[in-house]
Amino acid sequence: MRRSLGLILCLSMATVVAACGDDQHGGDGGTGTGGAGATSSSGAGPGSGGSTPEPPAHEGGGPAAGNPDGSCAVPDEAQAVDTSSPKTVIGDGTPESCTSEAVVSAVAAGGIITFDCGPEPITITLEETAKIFNDTGPEIVIDGGGLVTLSGGGKRRILYMNTCDEAQVWTTPNCDNQDHPRLTVQNLTFLGGNSTNDDDEGGGAIFAQGGRLKVVNSRFFNNTCDPTGPDLGGAGIRAFMQYNGLPLYVVNSTFGGAEGYGNECANGGGISSIGVSWTVINSLFSHNRALGNGGNPAMAGTPGGGSGGAIYNDGDTMTLTLCGTRIERNEVNAHGSAIFFVSNDHSGNIVIDRSVITNNIGGSWYPTYPQISNHDDTPIMVTASTIE
């Protein structure tokens, strides 16, 4: 893994220290044969949840947010945040008032942020990346109301949070495991984020290291990051160091969703992480691509990468939970056309409930189920789902 902050992380965070070196699943795993398709029934959702309020419909072009067939209950902590009393309202009711400068300033100030850009959908193209300051929370919410698209213009990452970046203010002596900022993005579209000129980390639309991130009723279209590399990734989201190993929630959201809207990176066309647990509920991943070639560690003569068409998870103890989620028509060159999941110490697990994984393209090393690359001793619990 190539990392601009690798020294800080390897020195300060024991939980992901194994991931700071080469992964040990090795290229040999790529010669495995795929498992049979699976259809299973029974099972419950990802925990108890209250009633889910109806999210606002996204206006403007592009696929809707979320899997229309997803019906899993959403836990209380994964629900959208009440933004009726915002700290900052971007705009004065006119499109012209909703500028890049206004967005960047509001995000830097933290708190609850909403938009008043008029009744029509609007795309705000950022002239610089919006960056979270770690001392402006602890709760930071960006709510687009189903009307706002934040665009990187194909030139820059859209949103950045890093508790271990001194420029964003260190707030605790344990930046690798702190409970803030707690960032929620909801009712937003992230379009054309591109981190290839920022660093070699990934996270074309969102980079989130430390604190906690939650994504609700949001869409990720045409985001990109470096096209090659053994362990970078996450055209939509790249995540590290969620507080106390608690899950990063993705709820009723879409990554790609139709031809021409997909996201692309070396690995993890949709989302990517090291040492992070994810709970993905009622969401859709389709038409995303892992562009790299040669896997991780990179095979001789290759630049590496090409794994996790939709999802790329690397680390030690972690859980990937899917409920009510559809993963289809994603594509890879190496492994895990739908999901790449490598727990280096073999302590991680996958839970798939009421979900569909189908028609993902390419790759090898499918020891348990088709389209999912994992160590053959990784527990995978499948209920009421189709994998074929």
TrEMBL record:
Q: Which SUPFAM superfamilies match?
A: Pectin lyase-like
Disordered, as annotated region = 29-96
What are the protein's UniProt keywords?
A: Signal
**From which domain of life does this come?**
Bacteria
Q: Which residues form the signal peptide?
A: 1-18
Matching InterPro entries: Pectin_lyase_fold/virulence
UniProt name for this protein = Lipoprotein
